[in-house]
Amino acid sequence: MSYELIICEKPNAANKIAAALADGKPIKENIKGVPYYKVTHGNKDLIVGCAVGHLYTVTEKEKKGWTYPVFETKWEQTSKTNKRAAYSSKYVTALKKLAKDATGLVVATDYDIEGEVIGWNVVKHICKKKDARRMKFSTLTKDELRQSYDNAAPTLNWGQANAGVTRHELDWYYGINMSRALSLAIKSVGSFKVLSSGRVQGPALKTIVDREREIKAFKPEPFWQILAIWNKDDGKKVVVEAWHKEDKFWDEEKANKAMEKVKAEKKAKVKDLQKKQFKQQPPFPFDLTTLQIESYRCFKIQPKETLDIAQTLYLAGIISYPRTSSQQYPPSIGYKKILSKIANNNSYTKKANLILARSVIKPNDGKKTDPAHPAIYPTGNFSGVEGREQKVFDLIVKRFLATFADPATRESATIKLDIKEEIFVSKGVRTVEKGWHELYEPYVKLEEQTLPGVEKGEEVNINSIEQLKKETSPPKRYTPASIIKELEKRGLGTKSTRAAIVDTLFQRGYVIGPPIEATELGIHTIGTLEKYCDSIIDEKLTKHFEEEMDQIRDGKKKSEDVLTEAKKVLSKILKKFKDKEKDIGNELLTSYREAESIANTLGKCLKCSEGNLTIRKGKFGRFIACNAYPDCKTTFKLPPTGKIVPSDKICEECKHPMIKIGTGKKTREVCIDPGCKSKTDKTEKEMEALEKEEKECPKCGKPMILRKSVYGTFFGCSAYPKCKTTVKIE
After folding, report:
1. Same domain flag for 426 and 387
2. One domain for residues 82 and 10
3. Residue 390 and residue 352 share a domain
4. Helices 387-403 & 303-315 angle (0-180, nearest 10)
């Protein structure tokens, strides 16, 4: 049997593509658990196979121990370099078997740089071919997939492939060399800690550290404000704020003089009244970054999770490809067709019909573009998504609809009041015509402050006047959404990698939050790098290489030239680093120990009042102990799993410190004292009765014992650790 092999990025994409291309029903088979599909399309036989993401990765050509610099690389099976990716080896085996008798190859991975690298690796290393046909699609819908196959390009997108391969090699150069340099610097002074840095990770961390320094260096300045509360004598009792026109008085004496003049006044005269209407244009279509920012604003969903959710929705065929920089919908996506499909869903019928009734259907496109994909849009197909996936999907659908709607009309109003010749100002704003707001509800969050209707020269009542002393505020820390926006503005990372870069900084202990705060380890690491080799964290250098890779994609630069330049730059940096290795090692080790001490210190010991309670590790696992040991032997147990970080809070019930315990995506804040009254609603007598209660383990039959942990009191099997059964106390 002769057939053409279609290479997909993941199993669920293969399932969708096979179903779309099949004239009948695809036949599903497998090779040692790896699925593939036999399909008839027209007069051709096809086999649709799949990878499972990246099957190959960059690694060191020859293992020469932990040294640097190292630039000799090769592409190796991911399963051989990462134990957690061992499962991927069977996909390599399956694709090799399928490729053996194939008369042609078609790459149908995601149409972006990473998808091109995945496809290129399969074609080159598994199929042993030089090229393949290439499908390009932005949705996993039947019509688009069939059109994509029938009009497949004769070759891979070599611009994307070369740019992707270069990025992987460049990131490996920086990641492996800098991580070894940092770790070996610490080793040179008698210790060993694995620290990491990367081409984008370093500048990203510096961005956060710089903000932390601004906050720490900030010196608040006092200022004074005068606030008048007034109302119109119309029986409605609507009170309005009016602030002195000076807004902030930086001179207390000047503020006092103004306050002295007006403090006893009960009436004010309307000196001026101004109203102004303005149009608020519909929002731009979602690119990935704005979707992540909006998802965090509306639902507090972290950017990385938003990307994961969007990918799931894409693979379900209900939204377009999410990894895009575009804020534009080309007419080729078929506005009316999608809107008509959306109108068939009762949740969106009314909103979609409002757009379909328009004589001209045109979106409010933004300026940002993407050479591979349009902005994110719903396909008009629906499937049973729920929970957070449903929330993000609803946001995408309503954003799509809102982009086609009329502008909203808003009205700003300003009332100036004369109180003893001191001018006070009230400001309001209201929506006159909803326009696109109606389609984007409930995600429109705008201030609505309607001022009372007054005439110039009219007298109004003063309810109160007060003088307030305030201080200027430091810059705000980044949120998970605002740091993504900041990295994009600085040209650091890509739309697909920024969330993962920030996630890595959390995992390495360089930052905590949200809001995102640089730890002592993060601050000192950047400080050391600035002192000895600041070019490694120079965002201009990182941005330069990002631009170089764009030029490779556009065919204006060669991969070899960019990699040669990178080797020269990095070799120079690493030589400088090696010359100061011991100095760097001493500073890094000191900062690491300081950071570890701060991270493990919870607060004062209530028993001795001398020592601090700290998190420690023993042969039986983690626990909390007073550092005044042996004079004070206070200890508390800790759960064996979960990330533990100090909390700023003190338990209101027992005054012991609180800790945050992270398990998966959930974080719980608990008191460290297992006997704290906050953990049970039982009285002392009830607790005594529970201790005497004879309870049998439902799993092994052994007696259950009343136990206490940071989570509270519970029954645990006496056969622990052989039997780990626990029973909650009702």
Report:
1. no
2. yes
3. yes
4. 80
Tell me the β-bridge partners of 661: 644, 668
- Bond into 721 cis (ω within 30): yes
Q: Which of 683, 660, 682 is nearest to 670 (CA)?
A: 660
**E strand spans, 346-458:** 408-419, 422-433
Please give the sequence-ordered ranges of beta strands (E in DSSP) within 159-252, or none if there are none: 222-231, 239-244
Cis omega (within 30 of 0) for bond into 69 = yes
Cis check: omega of the bond before 630, within 30 degrees of 0 = yes
Distance CA 133, CA 718 (A): 64
| Helix or strand holding residue 270 (H, E) | strand 267-280
- Residue 596 inside a domain? The answer is no
Burial class of residue 677, CB neighbours in 10 A (0-12, 13-18, 19+)? middle
Query: Which range is least confidently modeled, 216-220, 284-288, 603-607?
Result: 603-607
Helix, strand or coil for residue 165? helix
One DSSP character per residue, 334-345 reads: -HHHHHHHHHTS
123 and 82, same domain (yes or no): yes
CA dihedral 156, 162, 163, 168 (to 10 degrees): 110
Active site residue 321: yes
Candidate list 56, 321, 335, 592, residue with the active-site label: 321
Whether residue 10 is found in the same domain as residue 148: yes
For residue 229, what are the domain limits? 222-281+409-471
- Tens digits of residue pLDDT in 342-392: 999 999 999 999 999 999 999 999 999 998 999 999 999 998 889 999 999
**CATH code, domain carrying 448:** 2.70.20.10
What CA–CA distance (Å, rounded) separates 517 from 212? 7
Region class of 335: left (phi > 0), else alpha (psi between -120 and 50), else beta? alpha
644 by DSSP, 3-state: which? strand
> What percent of the chain has a predicted confidence (pLDDT) above 90?
71
State the total domains in the chain: 6
Mean pLDDT of the chain: 92
Spatial CA neighbour of 164 closest among 220, 121, 223: 121
Note the pLDDT tens digit of each residue in 602-628: 888 988 988 999 988 888 788 989 998
Indicate whether this model's pTM tops 0.90: no
453 vs 419: CA distance, rounded Å: 19
**Whether 270 contacts 233, CB under 8 Å:** no
* For range 210-216, the mean pLDDT: 96
Residue 43 sits in the same domain as residue 152:
yes
CA distances from 675 to 607, 672, 710 (A): 15, 9, 8
How many Å apart are CA 680 and CA 714, to the nearest integer? Answer: 10
DSSP code for 66: S
Token pair recorded at residue 396: 């995408």
Looking at the fold, whether 428 and 577 belong to one and the same domain comes out as: no
Q: Tokens in use for 202?
A: 């370093």
> Partners of 105 in the beta sheet?
5
